[in-house]
C-alpha cells in the first residue's frame, strides 16, 4: 500500500498539481491531506476543484488546518478579528471572498485530527498541528512537544503546520512532518510532500521534493487581485518561494515589533510592514 501525505497547500495550485502528478506516477492508492488548503495564492477555486476531483478518484482523508478555521470564523463569529483588519489580513479576506458556502461546509466537515486504522497495519494519527490543536507546532527538542506526543497511543503521527520536513523519534513513536506543498521553509523553488508505504505492519516514510516554476507563480501573484488585497503578504510569499527564507509569520512579527506592539496583529500599519520587509531584504 502506498499513500501520499500532503500538507500546507495554501492555495498554490501549481505546486499541488506537480505533487499530485508525481504521486499518481508513483502509484499511490490514496491521499491524506493535513490542512491549510487555501490562503496565500490567487484563485483558490482551482486548488479546491483539484481536491474535489481527487476525492472522486481516490480514497482521500482531509484534516482541517488553522487557515480553514480563520475562514470559518469569518462565517460564524460576529466578532471576527480579521474582518476589522487592514492589508495585513488581506490574504484572508481575499480567500474568504473567493470560496463558496459549499467550500466552507467542506472545511467544517473536516476533523482537526483523525486516527486511521488499516487492517494489518499500525494505527496512524494524522493532524495539522497536534491532535487537540491545529495551531500547536510539534517541534524536535521542545519539551511541550515531548509532553504532547507522550499522550498519544499511536506509534505513527503525521502532522503539518511547520512547513519543514522533519522527523521526531523516540523509543515508541515516530512523528513525521511531510513539509509544505505550497510554501516550504528552508528550501527554495520547490514543493514538498511525503510518500508512505506498508512494510509488514509498519510504515516506511519517504520525503519528496519537486521543483516548481517560481517565476510563473510570481507573475500570476503580481497580476492578481490578491496583490491589491495583501501586497506585503504577497511580497513575503514570493521571497519565500525564491529563497526558502523567512515565513510570513516571521515578517509579521517583525512588523509588529517595529510598531512596538501598539496595534493588534490584524492592523499593523503599512509603514511598519515596509520597514520589516526592508529589514529582511524582501523586495
TrEMBL record:
This is Metallophosphoesterase family protein. Residues 1-197 form the Calcineurin-like phosphoesterase domain. InterPro entries: Ap4A_hydrolase, Calcineurin-like_PHP_lpxH, Metallo-depent_PP-like, Pesterase_MJ0912. Pfam families: Metallophos_2 (PF12850). One of its GO terms (cellular component) is cytoplasm. GO terms for molecular function: phosphatase activity. Belongs to the metallophosphoesterase superfamily. YfcE family.
Amino acid at each position: 500500500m502506498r499513500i501520499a501525505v500532503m500538507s500546507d497547500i495554501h492555495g498554490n495550485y501549481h505546486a499541488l498539481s506537480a505533487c499530485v502528478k508525481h504521486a499518481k506516477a508513483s502509484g499511490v492508492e490514496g491521499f491524506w491531506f493535513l490542512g491549510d488548503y487555501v490562503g496565500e495564492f490567487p484563485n483558490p477555486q482551482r486548488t479546491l476543484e483539484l481536491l474535489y476531483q481527487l476525492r472522486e478518484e481516490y480514497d482521500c482523508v482531509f484534516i482541517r488546518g488553522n487557515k480553514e478555521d480563520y475562514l470559518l470564523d469569518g462565517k460564524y463569529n460576529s466578532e471576527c478579528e480579521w474582518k476589522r483588519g487592514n492589508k495585513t489580513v488581506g490574504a484572508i479576506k481575499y480567500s474568504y471572498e473567493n470560496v463558496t458556502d459549499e467550500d466552507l461546509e467542506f472545511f467544517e466537515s473536516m476533523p482537526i485530527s483523525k486516527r486511521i486504522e488499516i487492517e494489518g497495519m499500525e494505527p496512524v494519527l494524522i493532524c495539522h498541528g497536534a491532535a487537540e490543536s491545529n495551531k500547536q507546532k510539534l517541534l524536535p527538542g521542545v519539551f511541550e512537544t515531548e509532553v504532547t506526543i507522550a499522550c498519544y497511543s499511536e506509534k505513527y503521527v503525521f502532522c503539518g503546520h511547520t512547513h519543514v520536513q522533519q522527523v521526531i523519534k523516540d523509543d515508541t513513536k515516530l512523528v513525521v512532518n511531510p513539509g509544505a506543498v505550497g510554501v516550504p521553509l528552508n528550501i527554495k523553488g520547490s514543493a514538498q510532500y511525503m510518500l508512505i508505504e506498508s512494510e509488514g505492519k509498519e510504515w516506511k516514510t519517504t520525503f519528496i521534493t519537486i521543483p516548481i516554476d517560481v517565476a510563473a507563480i510570481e507573475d500570476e501573484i503580481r497580476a492578481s487581485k490578491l496583490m491589491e488585497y495583501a501586497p506585503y503578504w504577497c511580497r513575503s510569499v514570493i521571497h519565500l518561494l525564491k529563497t526558502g527564507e523567512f515565513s510570513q509569520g516571521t515578517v509579521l512579527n517583525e512588523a509588529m515589533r517595529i510598531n512596538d506592539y501598539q496595534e493588534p496583529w490584524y492592523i499593523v500599519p503599512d509603514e511598519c510592514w515596509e520597514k520589516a520587509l526592508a529589514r529582511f531584504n524582501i523586495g
